[in-house]
Amino acid sequence: MLPPFPQDVPTYPLAVVDYECLVAGDEKEVDDLWKAATSLGVWYMKNHGTDLEVDGMFEMGKRTINLPLEEKMKFERGDSGLSHGYKPAGGNVTDEYGNMDAIEYLTIAKDDVLSYPAVARKSYPGTVNACMEDVLKPFVLKSTAINETLLRIFGQKLGLPDGTLESQHKLEAPSGSEARCTKVAARTEPSRVALGGHTDFGSLTILHNRLGGLQILAPGTDSWQYVKPLPGHAICNIGDALTMISGGTLPSIMHRVVRPPPGEQSGLERWSLVYFTRPGDSVPLRAFAEESPLIAASVARMSESDKVKYAGSTTAQEWFIRRAKNQRAKNYLGPETWKASRGMEHRPEKS
Ligand SMILES: O=C(O)CCC(=O)C(=O)O
Ligand SMILES: [Fe+2]
């Protein structure tokens, strides 16, 4: 049993959305989701129906990340901006000064899970391969189904023609969608930022965490605040790609990971699990203004420089590679590298 999140540490309250009610078409729930997604871009989701798959993923992640470093490094992700594989702590920077991160993680491409035993992007340690069929595949498929439900709702609320958002995120299209298991070691110094402030690169993120450590920087505020993990609840957030497609209607929240909060949780190692849904590699990241009057109105209200940003000069894959590559510690040359790693952050200077 993990100790509870301390009562005397302030947390940012998020809306709770019930996934089963969304699936049932409950209008109030759909409206609650839309309110959370368009105001803050992050919410809790209960009754997501993936508890078994999540447990299996945590076990697989722990087994793999607990392998000797030498073994894991055979599958290291490299510095070219592709994320699949193993990333040791210190592999990325967390801020403009080049301070290194303190989180290690293992990232498995959706394309590799679906093509297994053929390799689409990268090969993985035996501990991953051993559960491709029984754990990875059901986790990826269920997480995808959840995100398809959310995309369908967002598409309707945005006034896009039916299927528009889904067609940018086809399961069979090569994409940066991926599952990630993360670990922050117990010995990490309390002052250290484990994962620097960022917005997620793709469209939708489903996060499962059990100990505190996730913090958000809510728009209009100036300080990082913890989000308290709630048992059985996932934390979902909007990423840059959906911000772009929706013409800014769906904001991607800035967040980061620090060590668990003071008190009983503070000395413990922290594990989390994420599924990122991203558009197909070749999808241009632009506001879908021609397809939706609501998005067109949002673009019309933008400054000229924002209009250029939302006009779509990169594909989803180019966006991802630029951001991921410039976060690599080995590629860090100075504050300009950090700046080049930024996405849709509302406070780009915060880390
Ligand atoms: O571990 C967490 O709570 C969040 C991880 C995260 O933000 C990420 O991997 O992008
Ligand atoms: Fe993130």
TrEMBL record:
Record-linked Pfam families: 2OG-FeII_Oxy, DIOX_N
Annotated InterPro entries: DIOX_N, IPNS-like_FE2OG_OXY, IPNS-like_sf, Iron_ascorbate_oxido_reductase, Oxoglu/Fe-dep_dioxygenase_dom
Chain ranges of the Fe2OG dioxygenase domain: 177-279
GO molecular function: metal ion binding; oxidoreductase activity
Annotated signal sequence range: none
SUPFAM superfamilies xref list: Clavaminate synthase-like
Compositional bias per record (Basic and acidic residues), positions renumbered to this chain: 342-351
Region feature (Disordered): 332-351
Keywords from the UniProt entry: Iron, Metal-binding, Oxidoreductase
Family indicated by similarity: Belongs to the iron/ascorbate-dependent oxidoreductase family.
Protein name: Clavaminate synthase-like protein
Species of the source: Punctularia strigosozonata (strain HHB-11173) (White-rot fungus)
Phylogenetic lineage: Eukaryota, Fungi, Dikarya, Basidiomycota, Agaricomycotina
